[in-house]
Amino acid sequence: MTNSHQIVTAINAFNDNYIWAISSQNNDKIALVDPGDAVVCIKYLQENNLALSAILITHHHSDHVGGIEKLLEYSKDKAWPVTVYGPATEKIAQLDITLKENDTVDLTELDCQFTVLDLPGHTKGHIAYYNDKMVFCGDTLFSGGCGRLFEGTPQQMHHSLTKLANLATDTLIYCAHEYTQANLAFALAVEPNNTDLHNYAEQVKVKRQQNQATIPTNIALELQINPFLRCHEESIKLAAQTYSNQNQPNDSEVFSAIRAWKDNF
């Protein structure tokens, strides 16, 4: 559970990464999700007079973990105790607490709690943090798309995306990259007759022209426009069949065909 006192803010990093800062109206503490770049995080802490208390990691890729060491050194100089949380099955040297599915993370100072989901696919040990308001899903689910399969199988990724699709429809999705516009170009190729998708693509176009973020998105929207969450729909099944020139016997195979298409799009 969480209450209304939390504030989630994007810290822009690299070309298109979002590092998520979770803060509270009640104190100066902050948690960071996937801080790949310590420099932009430290700048944010200094500009807003905030004290780092926790780091949440979804997976081991360098653009998600690269800033941990420097942030811990900076926090030590400030005498801030920082707890680093992350996936139990991935090698991340700085983790204090390792997590697996259904574990809970209680950020007491932020009056905020998360439950862990195992989301293998992008990497074997990828996890997400969710509660009744939000999910931090790293590189598993993006708006209009999903992560590449670097370590997991299509079947694993489809199962992981199904877990996310089953969250409450008003759950806010905080993913780690601004990939929406490129994802929607592919989604429109898969499902050119989806009116919701066309409308959303126009909204995203305007936002990006104004350099506005398209994240967070939410589960309800993604169920309408994201081909990777719609593998049970006839329109997606037909597109997968047309692309692969063969029938897919189940939704997981439909996902596999669509993901292979995206890899070569």
TrEMBL record:
Positions that bind Zn(2+) 2: 63-64, 139, 177
SUPFAM superfamilies reported in the protein's UniProt record: Metallo-hydrolase/oxidoreductase (SSF56281)
MF annotations from Gene Ontology: hydroxyacylglutathione hydrolase activity; metal ion binding
The keyword rRNA processing appears for this protein: no
EC number assigned by the record: 3.1.2.6
Record text on cofactor binding: Binds 2 Zn(2+) ions per subunit.
Highest taxon listed in the record's lineage: Bacteria
Cofactors required: Zn(2+)
Keywords assigned by UniProt, alphabetized: Hydrolase, Metal-binding, Zinc
Residue span, Metallo-beta-lactamase domain: 16-177
Reactions catalysed, as given in the entry: an S-(2-hydroxyacyl)glutathione + H2O = a 2-hydroxy carboxylate + glutathione + H(+)
Binding site for Zn(2+) 1: 59, 61, 122, 139
Record flagged with keyword Protease: no
Pfam families: HAGH_C, Lactamase_B
Gene Ontology terms describing biological process: methylglyoxal catabolic process to D-lactate via S-lactoyl-glutathione
Pathway linked to the protein: Secondary metabolite metabolism; methylglyoxal degradation; (R)-lactate from methylglyoxal: step 2/2
Function, as annotated: Thiolesterase that catalyzes the hydrolysis of S-D-lactoyl-glutathione to form glutathione and D-lactic acid.
Subunit and interaction comment: Monomer.
Assigned protein family: Belongs to the metallo-beta-lactamase superfamily. Glyoxalase II family.
Designated name of the protein: Hydroxyacylglutathione hydrolase
Organism: Colwellia psychrerythraea (strain 34H / ATCC BAA-681) (Vibrio psychroerythus)
Taxonomic lineage of the native organism: Bacteria, Pseudomonadati, Pseudomonadota, Gammaproteobacteria, Alteromonadales
